[in-house]
Amino acid sequence: MDDVRRHRWWGWGAEGVEFVWETKPDFAEIAKEKVGLDLWNAPRPGTPNLSDHEVPETRVASSLVEALTAAVGPDNVSVDDELRVIHSFGRSLPDLYRVRNERMTRLVDVVVHPGCEEEIAAVLDLVLDHDLVLIPYGGGSCISGSVTPDPSEERPIISLNLGRMRRVIDVDEQSGLARVEAGAYGPDLEEQLNLRGWTMGHFPDSFSYSTLGGWAATRSSGMQSDRYGDIEDIVRGLRMIHPRGVLISKPIPGRDSGPSVHEMALGSEGRLGVISECTVQVHRNPEVREVVGYLYRDWAHGVESMHDIARSEVTPSFTRLSDGPETRFSLAMVSQATTAKAKATARVQDALFAYLRAKGWDTTEGMCLSYVCFEGSKATVARERAEVKKIVKRHGGIDLGTGPGAVYDQKKFDTPYLRDFLLNYKVFGDVCETGVTWANLKNVHARVNERFRLIRSQQDGPGFMFCHMSHSYHAGACLYFTFAVPYAREDTALREYQTVKDAVQQEFIDSGGGLSHHHAVGTEHRPWIVDDITEPGAFMVDSLFRATDPGRNLNPGKILGEFNSTR
Question: Residue 523 carries which DSSP code?
Fold first, then answer.
């Protein structure tokens, strides 16, 4: 199990990878302006050290360790302190703050790495026979509290890490389907498929540190979902180890009879069992892939253009539109030009912005940057680029070519490291997103921004919010908001943050958006689940959980807590 990919205990991703602000000349200025962070004069924080924390002892008895070892092998059961810490916290903002700053009160007690379905079933039998708690663990990248144990749980808790189960078992080339073990991390999965000439096309922000099983269990969405679909479109069949045996959904058209058990398994976050394998839709590697950048005068023009692209015959892999504040932030993240080519590009950009200002554009926080990704044959990409260029021009936009898109493509998985960096300087940086119809998109965007400004005004503190539109559909799109707020006092920090996050989530519901487009429910979004799916819907879900897991042994408390029907 030593070769299983894992996060560092206190933050995102790999040791030694950090966000470096000094190479980005405009970043310090925007940090000072928006959240009062003076990086020029702030002392450089040290790296968190686990030895500074008191790690609670495991509650698992030696006899249970022996039974688990018999089930999965001697090298695949661990009560190591650091491993238990890593598996006790996801990567939500509250998780990361607590693991760094608060006393650790409740951790998982043992980490188990099964290598096959039979071993998963053997562990599940032990859990049910001994009244334990089982929390399935993919990559631990979730930001919704899906893998975090309940602090009040008294029973021993097992974290079941499927990282040993990461093979692409088989590719049915005639059907375009691949059988894949659920513990496959994004990079490993794509590498195995690419070697055979295929891609799954699923690239969430968490791609480097998340797994296929985790994507299925949390209803993930990827950056290229416009073309390849969300995970519920990609996963055509699955196997789940359930208390009553192995649940199998067949990867065939018209898969289910009656209510869909396949859909029940997707998004279940370990409440119904452990997803062990998925059969996924795959596609031949595209001959050409190009990401093209565009600029619009403002958000309204950009949204209308994105709408027209979504309704056209063009099928991009993704369409993304940043609002004005996010566009400014994105430009501030550009590294300082050091090569002759980069310096020439910077001069061209400066000249373009000067020209746009002369035309009346607000190039500070008004104009909006967009990316569109084209994939396919050379002829297909050329034809679709030409069609999109016409649409963009019709809405007053400017084609920037592939240069900005290439930079975006190289850095697209690095954003989580910025959140760790900000937390080092007592600034909370977080995200929340919602699905909306095209008719309601501008309204929701405006209302959420106003709600954020109002709550920060009431808290008498600075804050920065920006947004991009992603994951376009026929009827609507995803609005993905990012916000940053500083804190001064440790004793009130999380309450202040939670007030902001709660206000944004409540505005999603109040303005007709969804609770979350793709970040699961866990515990972070649980307070609004009844508002989102209605009381009858919550009753149905609760009944399913109670019937499957009457002893509350399977990741209890996630999605729904103690639900009391009003009828």
Answer: T
d(CA 57, CA 76): 19
Name the active-site residue from 97, 185, 480, 487.
480
Three-class SS of residue 398? strand
| Cβ neighbour number for residue 355 with a 10 Å cutoff | 12
Percent above pLDDT 90 for the chain: 88
Residues linked to residue 430 through DSSP beta bridges, in sequence order: 483
Q: What is the per-residue pLDDT for 336?
A: 83
Which DSSP helix (H) or strand (E) runs through 78?
A: strand 77-78
Which whole-number Å values give the CA distances from 375 to 317, 319, 385, in the listed order? 7, 12, 10
| Spacing of C-alpha 369 from chain mean position | 22
Q: Which of 51, 28, 48 is nearest to 40 (CA)?
A: 28
Going edge to edge, which strands form the sheet with 110-112?
A: 77-78, 110-112, 157-161, 133-137
**For residue 430, what pLDDT is reported?**
96
**Beta strand pairing call for 157-161 and 110-112:** parallel
CA distances from 34 to 68, 459, 521, 555 (A): 51, 15, 30, 39
Q: Which residue has the tokens 């679909």?
A: 229
Identify the pLDDT of residue 17: 87
**Residues of the chain predicted below pLDDT 70:** 1-2, 565-567
Q: Is 497 a catalytic residue?
A: no
Tokens of 329: 């932030």
Distance of CA 136 to the CA centre of its chain: 17
What sign has the CA pseudo-torsion 239, 285, 413, 506?
negative
Distances (CA, A) of 360 to 52, 136, 364, 366, 474: 55, 54, 12, 10, 33
- The structure tokens listed for 521 are 């429910």
Residues 167, 189: Cα–Cα separation, whole Å: 8
Pairing of strands 177-181, 274-281: antiparallel
Whose tokens are 């970043």? That residue is 27
Which residue's structure tokens are 């996963």? 235
Q: Which residues touch 65 (CB under 8 Å, ≥6 apart)?
A: 77, 79, 110
Helix pair angle (493-510, 93-101), 10° resolution: 170
**How far is C-alpha 510 from the chain's CA centre?**
23
Asked whether 278 and 284 are in contact (CB, 8 A), the reply is no
What does the alpha-carbon distance between residue 213 and residue 179 come to, in Å, rounded to a whole number? 12
Structure tokens at 513: 């958006």
The token duo for 562 is 């103690």
